[in-house]
C-alpha cells in the first residue's frame, strides 16, 4: 500500500467516523417516528457543529480535501487499475463533497425550518457514509487486485523458468 492510498484511507475513515457520530441523532429522525425531543436533540447537536471554532471546521475541510487530492494524484498514473478504482473513488468522493456543499451547509443555514432541515441533513449523512464506504471499498479492492496480479505474475514467471529449464536438457 502506498502513501497516497494511506492518505485516502485515513481521511475517509475520519469522515466515516464523523458520520457515525452523527448517527446518534440521525437514526431517531430517519428510522423512528419523529418526536419533538429527537428534533431538539438534533438541532442542539448540529448547532454545536455550526458554532464550532474555525479550527474544527478547518480540520474537517482538510479531511474532505485530502482524499480528492490523493485520488487525483493516483489517477495521474493512468493504468487500468487507476482508471477503474481511483476514477470511481474520485466520482464517489466528489459526490460526497457536493452533498456537503449543497445539503449540509444549506441545511445548517436554514434551521428555522427545523423539521425538514434536520431530516434532510440526516439523510445526507447516510448518503455520505455510503459514498465514503464506497471510496474505502475501492481502495481495498485496488490493493487486493494488485496483490492477486503480483501473485499470478510470479506463478507465470516461475512456470516460464521451469519451461526454459526443460528446453535446456
From TrEMBL:
UniProt key word Membrane: yes
GO biological process, one term: endoplasmic reticulum to Golgi vesicle-mediated transport
A single GO cellular-component term on record: endoplasmic reticulum membrane
Keyword Secreted: no
Transmembrane segments: 7-32, 52-72, 84-105, 117-137
Alphabetized UniProt keyword annotations: Membrane, Transmembrane, Transmembrane helix
Pfam families tied to this protein: SHR3_chaperone
Molecular function GO labels: unfolded protein binding
PANTHER family recorded: SECRETORY COMPONENT PROTEIN SHR3
Name of this chain's protein: Uncharacterized protein
Source organism: Saitozyma podzolica
Amino acid at each position: 500500500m502506498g502513501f497516497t492510498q494511506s492518505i485516502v484511507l485515513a481521511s475517509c475513515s475520519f469522515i466515516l467516523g464523523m458520520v457515525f457520530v452523527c448517527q446518534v441523532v440521525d437514526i431517531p429522525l430517519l428510522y423512528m417516528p419523529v418526536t419533538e425531543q429527537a428534533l431538539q436533540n438534533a438541532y442542539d447537536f448540529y448547532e454545536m457543529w455550526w458554532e464550532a471554532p474555525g479550527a474544527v471546521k478547518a480540520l474537517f475541510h482538510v479531511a474532505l480535501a485530502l482524499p480528492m487530492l490523493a485520488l487525483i494524484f493516483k489517477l495521474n498514473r493512468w493504468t487500468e487499475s487507476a482508471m477503474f478504482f481511483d476514477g470511481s473513488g474520485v466520482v464517489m468522493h466528489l459526490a460526497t463533497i457536493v452533498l456537503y456543499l449543497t445539503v449540509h451547509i444549506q441545511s445548517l443555514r436554514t434551521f428555522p425550518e427545523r423539521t425538514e432541515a434536520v431530516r434532510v441533513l440526516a439523510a445526507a449523512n447516510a448518503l455520505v457514509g455510503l459514498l465514503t464506504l464506497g471510496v474505502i471499498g475501492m481502495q481495498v479492492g485496488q490493493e487486493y487486485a494488485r496483490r492477486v496480479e503480483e501473485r499470478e505474475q510470479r506463478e507465470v514467471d516461475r512456470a516460464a523458468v521451469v519451461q526454459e529449464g526443460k528446453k535446456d536438457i
